[in-house]
Specification:
alpha/beta
């Protein structure tokens, strides 16, 4: 364990659900300390979990460069991270959770150029998908080259899809859950390697509070026919009261599984599965980011600069234990 006078100094950039999760995760890692929270809001308006934690405006970051070992970026992938990650990687080691899969190569290139110029180590797209699920997809393919990989998400609250239904005219509030179809999961687990359509793999369940005077059938129709979000899925819309929404749907559970089904010989099927069951999506994502912040700090000390992904990090670098301890206790 690294002693506390050598604790890794973490800067939290952004203090929403993810930022609060990072603060909670650092508290569970004795070799780390939150050196500061950086926000675009009025710093005085934030109430951190740690009463001694200092909150600063974003414009203080560069002045605090010598007081921070690794930044954990807690902004969104749509508008924040595409700008913040390359800008900050020029000056700081950092970890982000950029999760727009199609744009990862472009994001990597920008962050890599900045990190190489600044001689920093920046790890992008950490979390559970991309992140832990990505590692398990790579492992499955490498271990079972003759096979097929299946990723299922849920049961979980989808933030993007919930946002989409809240924008529908006549909706006063609502959430959407992504739910794997049991029959599809059972087929995959049996090792038969089915060809599955989008509709066959997941269904969507919406819980909606109607605005006053709105027509329920019109709202339902608009949701189930929404392109890119619901039109390719079996979607059920339940109308509930605002009280029910607040009482039963305030948490952010999620999870899912990655399954690799393959053959090592004609007669022998092999199935590998990795599963997550999460009470809090943001808190688990934050815990992954914090473990990767430790790895980034170590990689920088070894002179490994530039942009990295979870594929570049040896598992031992994530653990606070020494290599000797890991060999004795976990190998």
């Amino acid at each position: 364990m690294e002693h506390n006078n050598k604790a890794i100094r973490i800067g939290i950039v952004g203090y929403g659900n993810l930022g609060r999760g990072v603060e909670a995760a650092v508290a569970k890692n004795p070799d780390m300390v939150v050196a500061g929270i950086y926000t675009r809001r009025d710093p005085a308006s934030l109430k951190p979990l740690g009463t001694a934690t200092r909150v600063h405006g974003m414009d203080s970051l560069l002045a605090h460069k010598d007081q921070l070992d690794v930044l954990v970026l807690c902004g969104g992938s749509k508008d924040d991270l595409p700008h913040q990650s390359p800008e900050l990687a020029a000056h700081f080691c950092l970890v982000d959770s950029f999760d727009t899969h199609a744009r990862i190569p472009e994001h990597f290139a920008k962050v890599d150029a900045a990190a190489r110029a600044g001689q920093t180590t920046a790890l992008i797209s950490a979390g559970w998908d991309p992140g832990m699920f990505s590692i398990n997809r790579v492992m499955g393919e490498a271990l079972l080259p003759d096979g097929a990989t299946y990723t299922f998400w849920g049961k979980g609250l989808s933030q993007g899809h919930s946002d989409a239904i809240r924008r529908v005219e006549g909706v006063a509030g609502g959430v959407q859950y992504t739910i794997p179809v049991d029959e599809a999961v059972d087929q995959v687990r049996s090792g038969v390697r089915p060809q599955l359509s989008t509709r066959q793999k997941h269904r969507r369940e919406c819980h909606v509070v109607l605005a006053e005077g709105a027509n329920a059938e019109t709202v339902r129709q608009t949701i189930v026919e929404m392109p890119h979000y619901f039109d390719e899925y079996d979607t059920t819309v339940h109308f509930i009261s605002a009280e029910e929404l607040a009482r039963d749907h305030g948490a952010m559970p999620h999870g899912g599984f990655v399954i690799r089904s393959g053959n090592t010989s004609e007669q022998n099927k092999q199935v590998v599965e990795y599963r997550l069951q999460l009470d809090s999506n943001p808190e688990f994502t934050s815990s992954v980011l914090v473990a990767y912040a430790r790895a980034v700090h170590r990689m920088r000390a070894m002179g490994q600069t530039g942009c990295k992904t979870v594929f570049d990090v040896a598992p031992g670098l994530l653990s606070p234990k020494s290599a000797e301890q890991l060999r004795a206790e976990l190998l």
